[in-house]
Each structure stands twice: as C-alpha cells, then as structure tokens.
Here is the input.
Amino acid sequence: MTNKDRTASTYQRNAFAPSLIAAIALFLAPLLIGGDWFLLIRFIVAILAVIVAWFAFQARHWWWIPVFSAIAVLWNPIFPFAFDGPVWTAAQPVAAVLFLVAGATIRTTRS
Here is the structure.
C-alpha cells in the first residue's frame, strides 16, 4: 500500500497525548504520596486536566469539563488539600482511568 492509497482519518484526538501523560503520572502517584515528588505529580495532573478540559470544550464534549475542572482543583499544587489515606490513594488510579477514557473519546473532525 502506497501513500496514495491511504485515506486520511476524518477525526483527530487532541486530548490523547496529554491524557496518556497524566495517566502515567497518576499510576505512579501512589508510590510518591507523602514525598517531595508528589508536588510534581500535582503540577502535572492539574495542568493536564485544564488542557484536556480545553480540548473537551473545543470538541463540544461538555460532560468532561466538570470532571476535569474537579480534577484540576483537587490536584492543584498552589492551594493543596490535605488529603491522605486509602481514599486519596485510590483516587489516583480512578483519575488515571478518567484521563484515559477521555483521551480516547474526545475527538474533533479534521478540517
């Protein structure tokens, strides 16, 4: 099959790469909770949550905006919440799965 025979995709998934990076950080987060490196996880997750929410807005997938707004607030490094324990540890992979699902489903048509 040559390049002439290939049909270009009609959709693009702009949120996929930031979602994948955030999911990797969140899957590593339970190992880093309580340490200095968890601050870096908070920055990564909060910033990428805002980026994914923006891509959801652009794609008109409105239902993702409150989800990632909440993630950005809960993982914010500037005014952190003092969460700990098993609920906070379990929230890390749950948020990672949300990022992965959103990254796979948020898509826009190519122009």
The radius of gyration is 16 Å. Helices lie at 16-32, 38-58, 64-74, 86-105. Residues 49 and 71 are 6 Å apart (CA to CA).
